[in-house]
Amino acid sequence: MTTGAITDGPGAVIRTCLQAITSAALPLGAVRIRAAGAGPAVSTRDGGLTAPIAVRIEYAGRGAIEVRQARVRCHLDPNGTVVAVT
Question: Which of 2, 23, 57, 67 is deepest in the core (most CB within 10 A)?
C-alpha cells in the first residue's frame, strides 16, 4: 500500500486528511492513495478548518487497478482532528 501527500498548500492539513482517508480506504482494498490541496483552507466558526482536497485512490481489481478520484472537503475540528470528509 502506498500513500503520498503531494501538496502546495499546508502540508499538515493534507497529511492529516490523507491519514483519515487512508484508514477508510484500506479495508476496501486500496493499494495507492494520493492527495493534493485543491484550494485554500477556510476557517470555520468553531475554530476548525475545511480544506478542499483532490484525492486519487487505486484499488486492486480482478487483474487490473481500478481508479477512483474526486475533489472532497476535509473538515477538521479546532484540535486538528478530522471529523468528516464530504
Answer: 57
How does pLDDT run along the chain (86 residues), one tens digit per residue?
Answer: 444 443 344 688 999 999 999 999 999 999 999 999 999 999 999 999 999 999 999 999 888 999 999 999 999 999 989 999 99
What is 11-61 written as a DSSP string? HHHHHHHHHHHHHHHGGGTEEEEEEEE-S--EE-TTS-EEEEEEEEEEEE-
pTM, 2 dp: 0.84
Report residue 66 as a C-alpha cell.
Answer: 481500478
CA distance 44 to 35: 22
Instruction: Burial-class residue 42 by CB neighbours within 10 Å (0-12, 13-18, 19+).
Output: exposed
